[in-house]
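Q: I have 279 residues here and want to know how they pack in 3D. Can you give me a structure?
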Amino acid sequence: MSRDPGAVQWVGNVGWRQNEQTYDAVRFKSNLGHDSLIAQYIFGWENNRIFGDQGPAARRDFGMRTHLINVTYAHAEPLKVTGFAYLIDANDPFAANSSHTYGFRALGTLPVSDTWNANYEASWAYQRDAADTPVDYDAHYYHVMAGLGSSDLGKVAVGYEVLGSDNGQAQVVTPLSTAHKFNGFADAFLNNGGPRGLRDVYVSLAPALSIEGLTLKFIFHQFFSDQGGDNLGQEYNILAKYPCNKYVSLLYKFAYFDEGESGAPESRMRNTLQTTFKF
C-alpha cells in the first residue's frame, strides 16, 4: 500500500525501516474498462507495525476494521487526479487512531521550454473522528507544491503543508502513514504537531550532478503550529543516494532540527546510513 497519487502520506509501509510496516488486508483493483483510470478498494484488519509485538503497548501491532478507497484518473502528464476515502476503525487500545478522511489530490508536469519543466501538486482532505475516538473533532489538511526542473541544472521546489487542528483539541492524524518521509528526517513531528496541528513551509533543491546515478538533495523546513501559529523550529536535511551496481545501493540522510518556541520538540541531530541489497 502506498502518498500513491492520493495515498504513503496517508497509508505507507515505512520502507526505510528494516522491519517495514505491513498490513493484513485484501485489495481489489480495476481500471473499470478505462485505460486512464485506476480504482482500488482495500479492506484491512491488522496493522503490523515496525516495532512488532515487543515493547510498550502503545508501539505494538493493532487490529482494525479499515476501508481504503481511491480512484485515480490520469488525463495526461499535465494532470493526474485522485479522489480518496480512508475509513479507519482501530481496536483498543488504539481507538484514538480511528478517523474518517475524505479528499483529493491533483498533480502534473508541464513543459516550459525544451530544457525546463514545471511540476505542481495540490491536495486537500477533511477528517473527522470515528468509532471510539475519545475526542469529537473535525480538521482539514492542505498541501500545495510548485517546482521547476532542468536536466542540466537540477530541480527546485517550494511547498506548504498544513496538518490542521480543531481549536487545539485534536489534529489531523495519519496512523498508517510513512510520516518520516514528509515532515523532516529528524522525526520531530511524528505526532503531526500534537493537538495544535502543524504547518510546514519547505524548500528542496536537487542539483544535477556529473556522477552518473548519484542523487543529492537538500531540504529546509520551517515549522509552525496550526493553532496559534507559534514558531516550532527549523530543520535542515541532506539526502545522498548512489547505486553501486544493480544489486547494491547506498543511502545517507542527515537531519538537524533546531527547536523553536516553548512547547516545541527538543533540538536533535540524526545521521542515517542505509545499504540496500536486491537479488
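Q: Anything worth noting?
A: Confidence is low (pLDDT under 50) at residues 1-6. The chain has one domain: 4-277.
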